[in-house]
């Protein structure tokens, strides 16, 4: 039997991370990026589309409106995903919309997430950070940093910003977690979506009844959004705020603990924090993968992507492309990582990125200041990794420090 | 250097205001780009160029001057 040359045979998406390398993308992605940065890929449903691993290819496709973000057009790239066609985005889920629907939501929200507005929250972030550093210290060595520190800070901030009572988190946190799982059973995913919607519907009704000076309260009174849209976009913003920065805080901590020279540099120089956060965003790329579908035939880097073909975009591989970032596999806080794709690119680039920046530039340095002897409380290879989640990171991070 | 912003393309991500705050800002209301310095002083040029090249929505354009600025 004749074999096709390996450079042209469609690949499947590499998902296996190398043991002992919790910060690196699956090794197969790097090989592919060298060999064929825009490769043919066979999807689990049999579709033959594409896999982009090179920085230029990924960025080019993200910026091109001829590639759609609509879920119902895409083929799911990972094994164990939904059976059958992917359903359209629920109402208010901006990541699954194209212009002009997307533009309408983005225009309503962009003014509420500006650099200036988010920086005005810095004092509150500092306050919440201090409270949770105290809680971590109170828990003593062995405490899980995810539960005690990484998760509550962004959760409290997004709740306060939206006007969602943090005390209600028992009603939405587990649903949000299920929706972020790549291997959740369809019935569980559906139940989580319904649960989150029910919660948001109650909240929206309350906001309609009584004005409040928070984002949902203002949208309920000053925008043309229907109840259904308000419920949808509220759930979307809440879920987006809960699970993203939390993973950057926890995985960022893990990465800094594994790179003590870098942690020391951050500790010694508060001015380094902003640049350090950009580099951690590049190096860790916890939002690792996206999918777009060509609406018409498009030529990218000399390859013809036909209408209807899906392209899986590996942000994590692109952010380690040596053609864009020299020595990409080392964490170097001295590097200017501007231009990384950790927040995406194109019209869907993260709406909450300026909030994430404020949270990360405050929380990470504060943690390393408070605990100069911070270390893992378990061997590094026992830290459970979120290999099954849309947002990568760690499930738990038990930490320890010297007590006086 | 001459800068131009297309507010119909802008998505208000704030990359320009973050990268070159002396040159770009965001509107208080809609979050869209405001060009503070259409002809930015020379010491801001590297930041302005970076802001133009990283704009996620390709809303910024730049024309380099053909004659030296004073």
From TrEMBL, chain A:
It comes from Kitasatospora putterlickiae. Residues 1-25 are annotated as: Disordered. Belongs to the cytochrome P450 family. Residues 1-18 have a biased composition (Polar residues). PANTHER family: CYTOCHROME P450 YJIB-RELATED, P450, PUTATIVE (EUROFUNG)-RELATED. SUPFAM superfamilies: Cytochrome P450. This is Cytochrome P450. InterPro entries: Cyt_P450 (IPR001128), Cyt_P450_B (IPR002397), Cyt_P450_CS (IPR017972), Cyt_P450_sf (IPR036396). It holds the Pfam family p450. Keywords: Heme, Iron, Metal-binding, Monooxygenase, Oxidoreductase.
TrEMBL record, chain B:
Gene3D superfamilies: 3.30.70.20. InterPro entries: 3Fe4S_ferredoxin, 4Fe4S_Fe-S-bd, Fe-S_cluster_ET. It comes from Kitasatospora putterlickiae. Transmembrane segments: none annotated. This is Ferredoxin. Keywords: 3Fe-4S, Electron transport, Iron, Iron-sulfur, Metal-binding, Transport. Ferredoxins are iron-sulfur proteins that transfer electrons in a wide variety of metabolic reactions. Residues 1-29 form the 4Fe-4S ferredoxin-type domain. Its cofactor is [3Fe-4S] cluster.
